[in-house]
Each structure stands twice: as structure tokens, then as C-alpha cells.
Amino acid sequence: MKRKLILATGLLIAMLLFAGCGAEQKTIGEKAEGEHIYQVNVTNDTEKVITKVQVKDNSMKDYSDNMLKKDETFAAGETRTMYVDSEAAKAAAKNNSKTKESYQIKVTFDDKSEKTLSDVPFSDMKACIIKWDKDNKVAYLTYESEKDGKSVSTKEAEIKRKKDAEKKAAEKKAAEKQAAEQKKTQESQAAQASNAGSGDAGTQQENSAAYDNSGTSYSEGTSGDYSGGAAQSADSGSSAPAAGGASSGQATASSGGCVNGGLMN
């Protein structure tokens, strides 16, 4: 009886081990085969749950759709097999000497934050670990190079990329602020110039109106107003008309006296 129990227990353990060995590892992307397919075991060692995994290669403008199946998550501590088709990337690099085969992975965590893993060397690794640097808040990879067997970490490269991006963003913000200040100054100067021009035009109109009024008074005095005419003569310094007028009066009076005298005689 005891022997049968031992045999049964051993058989159960063997079945469990066999079932465990036969269990297929979950994937990232659709399982595929071929010389242009990269197959890499990826472990999530970020201590965070990953809800999206997206890939972009040098032939693409945008990231792919989520490579995890619907309603799946990539749990912390979990290892999955990732399948990446390199055909388009290799063809793009072959057709354009200015580009090279390259890949980026964007992971989205359950807190909605996103991190990018740049220059992922799928051709140089069979397995990699996604890690998290709490101090610098960057995700990075560690792996063993297939070329020379050395352990590689992308931590320093990812930190540098983050700092460069932050510097570029700060410079852009400063340039936008300076441009806005310059525009504001130019608008203020233009407004001041416009106000100054309006003031000069008003002064010119007032001067013109005063000149017209003066001319009208002068014209009325010379043509219809006697005192105005006298004023003009006095102002002009001409005393001949006045003297002439008096002599004419006197001559008329004298002539009148002679005629009268003749009649009386």
C-alpha cells in the first residue's frame, strides 16, 4: 500500500513537470518563423505592469499597434517571446545608404506613462531584460551580445537621450518666449508710432484751419470793410492814398469857391 502511494505521488509529480515543460510561453507579437524574423525572450524587470508594447523601425513613421493581445498585460517578472519582422527595415536600409536598420520599442505602463527603448539590437541578442532606473526615471535594456558574449547595458545611453531631449525642449521654450517678447515689443512700437502720426495729423489740421480763418478775415477787410482796408494801408506803410484823398477834397472845395465867386460877380 505504501509502495503504491509512493508510485502514485511520483507519477503525479512527473505529470505536473511534463505539463509545465509543455506549457507554451506567451508572446509579444504573432509567432512567426523565417530568416527575417527576430525571436527574442524579453523579461519585464521594471517592477511595473506593461499594458502596451509597440515597435518602430527605420522604414516606419509611426509606431505599430499594440503587440500584446487584447486585454493582455505584461506582468512584472514575466518573460515572453517577442517576434519582430525585419524585412521592411532591411529593405529600407538597403535602398537608402543614409539610413541603417534600427528599432525602437515603446512601452506603456499601467499608470499611463510611456518610455522608449532606443536602438534595440535585435540582431545581436537572443534574450534581454527591460529594467527601470528610479533615480533618472528611464527604462533600459540589459543583454548578452551574440557577437562577443559581453554583457551590455543601455542605461547610460538612455539617460543621455533623456537629458538631450530635455535640453532641446528647454531651448525651444526659451526661443518661443523670446520670439513672443519681440513680437510684443514690435506691436507696442507700432502702436506708439501710429499714435504719434495721428497727433501730427491733428496739429497740421488745426494749423491749416487757423491759416484759412486768417486769410478769410484778410480778404473781407480788403474787399468790403473800409476799416479793414485802412488797416491794410496803414500796415502796408502807404500814406499816398490818404494824402491824395485830402488834396482832391481841397481842390474840389477851391474850385467850388471860384465858381461861386464868379456867379456872385
Sum up the structure in keywords.
single chain; 265 residues; alpha+beta; Immunoglobulin-like; 3-stranded antiparallel β-sheet; 9 strands; disordered C terminus
Describe the structure.
The protein has helices spanning 2-22, 87-95, 155-223, 226-236, 240-264, and strands spanning 27-28, 37-45, 50-57, 79-85, 103-109, 114-117, 127-133, 138-144, 151-153. With 265 residues, it is an alpha+beta fold. It has a domain at 24-153: Immunoglobulin-like, CATH 2.60.40. It has a six-stranded mixed sheet with strand order 1-4-2-7-8-9. Strands 3-5-6 form a three-stranded antiparallel sheet, with no helix packed on it. A hairpin with a 4-residue loop joins strand 7 (127-133) and strand 8 (138-144). Helix 3 packs across helix 4. The longest helix is centred in the last third of the chain and has 69 residues, at 155-223. The model is unreliable at 217-265 (pLDDT under 50).
SSE blueprint and pairings:
Blueprint: H1 2-22, E1 27-28, E2 37-45, E3 50-57, E4 79-85, H2 87-95, E5 103-109, E6 114-117, E7 127-133, E8 138-144, E9 151-153, H3 155-223, H4 226-236, H5 240-264
Parallel strand pairs: 1-4, 2-7
Antiparallel strand pairs: 2-4, 3-5, 5-6, 7-8, 8-9
